Please model this.
Amino acid sequence: MAFAGHQNDHDLGANEDAYENEDSKGNVEHISDAALDHSTTTGRKREAPPLVRDLSSEDRKSLEFALVRKIDLRLLPMVILMYVLNYLDRNNIASARLAGLEDELELTSVQYQTCVSILFVGYILMQIPSNLFLNKIGKPAIYLPTVMIIWGVISAATAEAKSFGGLLAIRFFLGFVEAAYFVSI
Model:
């Protein structure tokens, strides 16, 4: 199906959203959104609310643009903040190494690299389950802040690690929780 490049009232009626379907013989069939039956996916026909249905095309486009802008202005600052904090946290262990992490926890070079790498094991293991869970609950406005709070608690627990095993476990679960960020966003 391709979007119809032009419309005329003769072929498509008054509907503005139309599609054309070309079969193997080159015959073109015009299909309007009104003709598409959405009842197979939702169990009932979907219609625009009367307030939206009565608007002109230009009014709809301007309202849609305003809505998208409003959503972007509310959502993007938090997404950017989450991304920056996530980036800082991932690089935090390198700063801790420079500040003497290896000496305090008596880590070998291999143990340190294992602690750096284990974050990605948890991250990879949790990406798909996190997305499935988000789809199941269907409320990113609750899921993302909850995950962010858990991530903050686990990130703060890194300061209390006293051994290789403790740091390894914290880094694994940190990756486990961080998996929700980019999948969800």
About this structure: The helical segments are 9-12, 39-42, 50-53, 57-98, 101-105, 109-137, 140-157, 164-184. The two ends are 29 Å apart (CA to CA).
